[in-house]
UniProtKB/TrEMBL annotation, chain B:
GO terms for cellular component: plasma membrane. Residues 41-244 form the ABC transmembrane type-1 domain. This is Unannotated protein. The chain crosses the membrane at residues 46-67, 79-100, 120-141, 225-244. Keywords: Membrane, Molybdenum, Sulfate transport, Transmembrane, Transmembrane helix, Transport. One of its GO terms (molecular function) is molybdate ion transmembrane transporter activity. The keyword Signal does not apply. It is a multi-pass membrane protein. PANTHER family: SULFATE TRANSPORT SYSTEM PERMEASE PROTEIN, SULFATE TRANSPORT SYSTEM PERMEASE PROTEIN CYST. It comes from freshwater metagenome. SUPFAM superfamilies: MetI-like. InterPro entries: ABC_perm_TupB-like (IPR049783), MetI-like (IPR000515), MetI-like_sf (IPR035906), ModB_ABC (IPR011867), NifC_ABC_porter (IPR006469), Sulph_transpt2 (IPR005667). It is found in: Membrane.
Length: 351, 258
């Protein structure tokens, strides 16, 4: 069973157009920069907002289809939502929050409370059942929000930046727990995030959303191996070059040439991994590497024994070299250097 | 600055000082135990409490509509609903008279079809009071709903709650202090209603003669009674205002905690 959505919606001069689907038991991560339309997507899927054209359906039931004059409102959809800052009801205790959805649907108080208690036990919160929610820690609040969304047995679970409100220390454990709960959830999951680590840890497939358009959709490996936009390349931490290939030469829109190992034709992307770049201080040496570009060091970011060097020049690049190399070459921000890349390290794929 | 502020305080305080100075304290019990005074006081309490209740039943949904539903002409409706706050109450009374009076645009049908007559009845007093008092509740409650984070209501809806259930379980508990304040303001305004009442409902002792009307009449026939009646109403209003202030302070304290 699947949740399909293929729609277009316009708000002011922003247009959101998405065609995708999520299977039951699958987690689809929606990654995108701020303002890409992620939150709007969740409002549309949950039924808090209507689409303009197209359709949204879950398990063969139409939820939204303007052409057929069908719109199932939020309260009638089997959708559970974990909101970004959880939005737990402050006047209610943890167990009352989780029981809220059942009570709203007419389940009697004793049954609803019993089910809520069981759910909170599953997420390891049996000691905080009757605490008012403002007194809970961030990680506890997140689990109450998850239990509350799962209590109505949704067909589709939506998670809006579920870890963004947590500090770094708790984020890791909460992420690990979340992964466990999601793997036992039967329905489809859409996870909105701007943190690629969430996608790595939790998602089966990734949808990259930019400016209201789907840039890429596929498994993590597919998307990270062949990024199709600067945003994805930056997320993955690699260098993406766009240009036109002819023979073994790629020419960028700014006129820089990149020598390739194999023949290619037409509009292409090229990826150069930061580890494949060698930094030299002079280009007068004879080398087997076919590509040499000048650049000024604008940033040196050390992490452990490695350094990421950001180069500003005709072709902006990020190189990764050892900290020992940075020290022995005495590299500093502002130094003029050259980036050297073998043609065999440039991977080309069509646009 | 201090001197000017002092003048303001004096300006508000002096009229009451005058009242208290001139009030025939020795006759207080006599006047208050007079039957006509008792009747007017009872009628005032009765009608103003009914007005507060009706304002609550109809005003809260109106406040919700104005705060939460985006419909064309919303600002027009808001202006209409609060017009009677700035209108001279007499004008409101005249408008009511020509609409719901026996020969009024709607009043004649009320009379012909249902046998309902509003002018010169206690029901008319309530209508006149609602007309001028309900906007106070609507504005207070609307502002409170507007300040609520509507995402909590969204969250409740995604959990399967109907609009009414969301309002009852989420919205209403959050706006309780404002609702209490709104009801109290509307009630106090109804208690002091004069112009619209006397224009629309007349001045019939026992039926439409409320405390303000009785006070005005007494000023001509029995000024001492007018003084005592005024003192009584001042006391009631003052108690309401002081009570409200505590409410508001209590609300602020809650905000600091949460």
């Amino acid at each position: 069973m699947t949740t399909h959505f293929n729609f277009s919606v316009t708000q002011g001069d922003f247009n959101l157009k998405i065609d995708a689907s999520v299977n039951d038991g699958e987690v689809l991560a929606v990654l995108g920069p701020n303002g890409s339309g992620k939150s709007t997507l969740l409002r549309l899927l949950s039924g808090l907002q209507q689409i303009d054209t197209g359709h949204i359906s879950s398990r063969n039931i139409l939820w939204d289809s303007p052409a057929d004059d069908i719109f199932v409102e939020a309260q009638q959809r089997r959708v559970g939502v974990v909101f970004q800052d959880y939005l737990l009801f402050k006047e209610l205790s943890a167990v009352e929050n989780v029981a809220f959805g059942l009570r709203a649907q007419g389940v009697n108080k004793a049954t609803a409370t019993e089910q809520a208690r069981a759910l909170l036990q599953q997420v390891g919160l049996s000691e905080h059942l009757h605490k008012k929610t403002p007194t809970l820690s961030g990680g506890q609040a997140q689990r109450v929000a998850l239990a509350r969304a799962l209590a109505i047995q949704p067909h589709l679970l939506l998670l809006d930046e579920p870890l963004a409100a947590l500090d770094v220390a708790t984020r890791q454990t909460v992420r690990r727990d979340l992964r466990r709960y999601l793997s036992s959830f039967q329905g489809a999951v859409v996870l909105v995030t701007h943190d690629p680590i969430d996608a790595y840890a939790l998602a089966d497939r990734v949808l990259i959303l930019e400016n209201g358009q789907v840039m890429q959709i596929g498994t993590l490996n597919e998307v990270t191996a062949h990024p199709r936009s600067r945003y994805v390349a930056d997320l993955v931490g690699t260098n993406l070059i766009t240009g036109h290939a002819s023979g073994v030469t790629l020419t960028t829109s700014t006129g820089i040439t990149v020598v390739l190992a194999d023949q290619a034709e037409g509009d292409v992307f090229a990826v150069i991994k930061p580890q494949a770049i060698t930094i030299v201080t002079s280009n007068e040496l004879t080398s087997s590497a076919r590509n040499t570009w000048p650049g000024v060091i604008t940033d040196i970011d050390r992490s452990g024994e490695r350094c990421r060097i950001t180069l500003h020049g005709p072709l902006p690049l990020v190189a990764e070299i050892t900290a020992a190399a940075v020290e022995s070459m005495a590299l500093r921000v502002g130094d003029e250097v050259f980036a050297v890349v073998k043609a065999t390290e440039v991977e080309v794929y069509s646009r | 600055m201090l001197a000017l502020a002092g003048v303001s305080v004096a300006f508000f305080a002096l009229p009451f000082a005058g009242l208290i100075w001139r009030a025939p304290w020795s006759k207080v019990t006599d006047i208050l135990s007079e039957k006509s005074v008792g009747t007017a006081l009872w009628l005032s309490l009765e009608t103003s409490l009914i007005t507060a209740l009706i304002s609550c039943i109809f005003g809260v949904p109106l406040a919700w509509l104005l705060a939460r539903v985006n419909f064309p002409g919303r600002s027009f409706v808001r202006a209409l609903a609060t017009l009677s706050m700035v209108l001279p109450p007499v004008v409101g009374g005249v408008a009511l008279f020509f609409s719901f009076g026996r020969r009024g645009l709607f009043g004649q049908y009320l009379n012909d079809w249902f046998g309902i007559r509003l002018p010169f009845t206690t029901a008319g007093v309530v209508i006149a009071q609602c007309f001028v008092a309900m906007p106070f509740l609507v504005l207070t409650v609307e502002a409170a709903i507007r300040q609520l984070d509507s995402r909590y209501e969204d969250a409740a809806r995604t959990l399967g709650a109907s609009r009414l259930y969301v309002f009852r379980r989420i919205t209403l508990p959050s706006i309780k202090p404002a609702l209490v304040a709104g009801v109290a303001l509307a009630w106090a305004r109804a208690l002091g209603e004069f112009g619209a009442t006397i224009t629309f409902a007349g001045n019939l002792p026992g039926t439409t003669q409320t405390m303000p009307l009785a006070t005005y009449l007494a000023l001509e026939s029995d000024p001492e009674a007018a003084l005592i009646l005024s003192m009584l109403m001042i006391t009631v209003s003052f108690v309401v205002l002081v009570g409200l202030r505590d409410r508001w302070l209590g609300h602020q304290r809650n905000d600091l905690v949460s």
